[in-house]
Amino acid sequence: MTQHTTLNLAGFQIGHATDEEFFTGCTVILCPENTVGSADVRGPAPGSRETALLAPDKPNHYVNAVLLTGGSAFGLAAADGVIRYLAERGIGHHTPIKPIPIVPTAVVFDLGFNWGQKHPDAEMGYAACLAASSGPIQQGNVGAGAGVTVGKWSGFHNMMKGGFGAASVTLDELVVGAMAVTNPVGDVLNADNSVLAGARGEDGRWLAEAYPLRFISEERMPSPGANTTLVVVWTNARLTRPEAHRLAQRAHDGMATAVRPIHTTHDGDTAFALASGVVEASFNLVANAGAEMVAEAIRNSVRFAASLPRAPGLG
Q1: pLDDT at residue number 1
Q2: Nearest to 150 by CA among 255, 247, 248, 76
Q3: How many structural domains are present in the chain?
């Protein structure tokens, strides 16, 4: 099951490409002109492209799109399709020769359901751009959320299905939203810190009840690099590059609210922040809203995730 939800995207567009046979895919967010962006990478096992360009000390190049993709490092090839789509439309950083599309990209490891037989490629990245719109957004087993899982701290046999989720809030003219692809070692939590989706024992009870620190042994932990939570915060606020970087940092607060444990040695957690610069707003208000929307997007990613073999879902 997937859920179509109407969100305020404030001029951004989101598109999915999903391979339902091989349980993989990618998700793109296309940016309005002159969007400022940054990123904050805290997981020690990330797979990414162009994130260094988004550091606060780099020149303020505008961001044209952000791509989240399955396929681990193989899936980075999907960004070539996004670049082709933008280049055909003359979108990108101006140079004397031709515009260069700026497309930061991050990956999740989703090879477990298809045993590495298929991963997103340039054609899939291009298809995600063609599907992008500001209309109702699909959530659940779609795009980069097609083959992800949660609750692996006690082993893969106790995991549940993760997915793609999104949320937004409108405060007068200010819009702040977030999208998430949830593939962590940890459990996903409700706002009251109870488990929403995660590691379950044979009796169906949450294993965190018996292991509140969510650790049994290193042998039970999944392989390093096979887990990651990716989020993108978007807003129509006017932010500088350093402020966008701080917003990406604050996005990790939302991760820590909704996922436990987060930022483990087995995860590649990465947050992007995008600001289109339409309205003036307090940075603190934007950042507070961003963290809340990240947490809600993560929760939505599992609420609408349907079951796959070996990974029961809530959707």
Answers
A1: 54
A2: 255
A3: 1
